[in-house]
Amino acid sequence: MKIFLKALLASAFALTLSLGGCYYDNEEDLYLGSSSCDTSNVTYTLSVAPVFAGYCNSCHATGSPSGGIVTDNYESVVANITRIKGSINHENGYLAMPQNGGKLSTCDLSKIDIWIRKGMLND
């Protein structure tokens, strides 16, 4: 009986450790202060447009934009910034974007936020 109890306790301990290891951490969320996200010189051309090119423009290009939102040019992004910001931040009342994909990284969202706070310059 003593061996069975020890085996049971060892199994319970191993199960507890293995379940605790199933948590999926995002490195970016864990290390917010890391140098992998450079927000020191955020501009539309170098910081914001590449995010839209990588995640949005395939569905929201000038030719036939999904939902009537165009993200492949500065003027349209500025004109639709409230809807874009609500969607990429997955806010209530907005369609979460990218559609059928995960939320943009904290770094990418920070760059867009900084650009907006700086006055959405076309630089």
Summarize the structure.
With 123 residues, the protein is mostly helical. It has helices at 2-20, 27-30, 44-55, 74-79, 81-88, 106-117.
Q: Rg to the nearest angstrom?
A: 22 Å
The count of domains is 1
Shape: elongated
Low-confidence stretches: 15-32
Structural class: mainly alpha
Give an account of the 3D structure:
The protein is mainly alpha-helical and 123 residues long. It has one domain. The protein is 50% helix and 0% strand. It has six helices and no strands. The protein is elongated, with a radius of gyration of 22 Å. Residues 15-32 have low confidence and may be disordered.
Secondary structure elements and pairings:
Elements: H1 2-20, H2 27-30, H3 44-55, H4 74-79, H5 81-88, H6 106-117
Helix pairs in contact: 3-6
Keywords for this structure?
single chain; 123 residues; mainly alpha; 6 helices; 0% strand
